[in-house]
Amino acid sequence: MFPPAISDIIITGELAQRGSGDPDYLREKLAFRDLAHDMANTPGEVLPRLVRLAMEASEAVSAGISILDRDAGAFRWFAVHGSLAMFEGTRAPLDFSPCGVTLASNGPMLMRHPETVYDWIREAGITVPEVLLVPLRVVAPGEAGAVGTLWVVAAEGGHFSQEHARVLTELAAFAAVALRMVQSEERLQAALRDQEQLTQEMTHRVKNLLAVIGGMLRLTARTSNSKEELLTKLSGRLEALSAAHQLVRSSFGDGKISGVTLRQVLATVLRPYEHVLMNGPDVHLGDHATNSMALIFHELATNATKYGALSTERGTVELSWSVKGDELSVVWKETGGPVVSEPASEGFGTSLVRSTVSRHDGRMIWRWFPEGLSISINIPTANLVR
């Protein structure tokens, strides 16, 4: 079933041969009652407490939960206690770890010195005389499958028994349900945060839209010789502004290359504004990157219209970009507008731009010169195809 090297360290059969004390069912009943109370009232505290209970019940030197992340092909160590607590958050490969073997066996697994087979354990400087693992599985209507493992480590070999495996299995069943509850709570809170962010963003966009339209009306009126010319110019700019808003969307396709280039995005977003000079190569974008680039430069143009170079007839924006190695480098430079200085606090729009760049693992630097704002943005090209 397993490769010879792994089979050599699996000693699960020894559990039934080892002596163990009488089970304390009353103590277990009270412990589970307390855990159930915590699950109902403070679900976030259940798993750390459950791990501590597993360590105490098995007289282990360390214990923890390995949460399965199939998308990443790995386990993440969570709620680690005892001698291995420093490795909280460590990732272990799904297809080459004691946890992976345990899920494949679908039952308790006892191993002796797994570091002799798994080099990532050995390279971390971890010595494991004996480890007992049990799978965490959810069996519920509409949801079934492995979610991770619960494990305990002994200070010496020959420590764990069949009784330890029984207690750990019962705790694992409780832990699987608790883990799903915690993850559901996290998803709910994330959804609420996203909804609040969306509400703030929509309010911000409406206020900006009104400010931009007002600025366009004033500038168009100054450069028009008749009401007919004003109407023609303003209508064209409003149509361009509408197209830009359509591009800044909140829904996406499959995240693959969309066929849109950075130049196309910038041309659409910046078409409502006069005196914007652009220079740079075609860079293909994925759906998410298309939305992000549109949002970033729509926000920068809006701010320039309200406070910067685009708020005056003489002001200009020079926008240039290039690909250097594995990075996209963009420079936004304003000149000819009012004298500017760094604001005392960061507004919602600036925060939105900064967080959008960060989501693509990018960097952003703002420089406030008297003649105008200069911004540099660097984003890994690999993150532009998503």
TrEMBL record:
**Reactions catalysed, as given in the entry:** ATP + protein L-histidine = ADP + protein N-phospho-L-histidine
**Coiled-coil portions:** none
Q: Which domain of life is it from?
A: Bacteria
Q: Which Pfam families match?
A: GAF_2, HWE_HK
Q: What class of enzyme is it?
A: transferase
Q: Which UniProt keywords apply?
A: ATP-binding, Kinase, Nucleotide-binding, Phosphoprotein, Transferase
Domain GAF per the UniProt entry, residue ranges: 42-189
Q: Which residues form the Signal transduction histidine kinase HWE region domain?
A: 201-282
Reported EC number(s) for this entry are: 2.7.13.3
The name under which this protein is listed is histidine kinase
Biological source species: Bradyrhizobium ontarionense
